[in-house]
Amino acid sequence: MVKQTIQIFARVKPTVQGQAIYSIDEDEKLTPSLEIIVPHDLADGFVNNKRQSYKFKFQRIFDQGANQETIFENIAKPVAER
Question: What are the Kinesin motor domain coordinates in residue numbering (predicted)?
Fold first, then answer.
C-alpha cells in the first residue's frame, strides 16, 4: 500500500483575449499558487459584486509554454513507474 499524499497540479491553457488574467507565484519557500483575476464587466451598467480574484495552491503549476512531454515526465511517468 502506498503511503503518499495526493498531489495536485495545474496546467494553464491559453485563454480567450480579455476573459481572465492570471499570475503564478512560485516562491521557493511556499507552495506555488495560481491567482485568476476575472475583470468586472461594466458594459451593461449593472453593479457586479462578485469576487474578482481567485487564488489556488498546487504542488506544481505548468504555464502555457509547457508541452505534453513535460507534463508526462513530471506527473504521469513517476506514477506509472511505481
Answer: 5-82
DSSP 1-68: --------EEEPPPPPTTT-EEEEE--TTS--EEEEE-----TTS----S--EEEEE-SEEE-TT--H
Whether residue 12 contacts residue 56, with contact meaning beta carbons closer than 8 Å, is answered with: no
pLDDT tens per residue, range 17-68: 656 688 888 876 788 999 988 776 655 556 667 778 889 999 999 988 899 9
Beta bridge partners of 37: 21, 53
Q: Which residues contact 13 (CB under 8 A, 6 or more apart)?
A: 64
Within 10 Å of residue 60's Cβ, how many Cβ atoms? 15
Residue given cell 495526493 in the structure block: 6
